[in-house]
Amino acid sequence: MNYKQKLDKQKVGLNLYRLIDESNYTYEYVAEFLMLSSPRVIYEWTKGTKMPTIENLMNLANLFEVRIEDILS
């Protein structure tokens, strides 16, 4: 990914939604895996209103066994 490209929060949200759905993980499980206090931020990510941090992207990529680029593109 070209560093000058602007990230599309909606596309990232759809990618995360798809990955969670296909994995059959609950939002609660993903939040627990990421050591978040609540799954609320997961909903915000999947709706495209917020973006995960780099650390959370790395952990999500590990959880779903994909590359970070697969989440961002």
Globular, elongated, flat, extended or rod-shaped: what is the shape?
globular
Q: Helical element count?
A: 5
Largest sheet, in brief, is:
none
Low confidence ranges: none
**Mean pLDDT, all residues:** 93
Count of β-strands: 0
Q: Please indicate the percent range of residues in DSSP E strands (runs of 2 or more).
A: under 5%
Q: How many angstroms separate the termini?
A: 8 Å
Gyration radius from CA atoms, angstroms: 11 Å
Percent of residues in helical segments?
55-70%
Q: What order do the SSEs take from the amino end to the carboxyl end, as H and E?
A: HHHHH
The class by helix and strand makeup works out as: mainly alpha
What do you see in this structure?
It is built from five helices and no strands. With 73 residues, the chain is an all-alpha fold. It has helices at residues 9-23, 27-33, 40-46, 54-64, 68-72. The relative contact order is 0.21. The model has no long low-confidence stretch (mean pLDDT 93). Helix content is 62%, strand content 0%.
How are the SSEs placed, and which strands pair?
Layout: H1 9-23, H2 27-33, H3 40-46, H4 54-64, H5 68-72
Essential attributes:
73 residues, mainly alpha
Summarize the structure.
This protein has 73 residues and is mainly α.
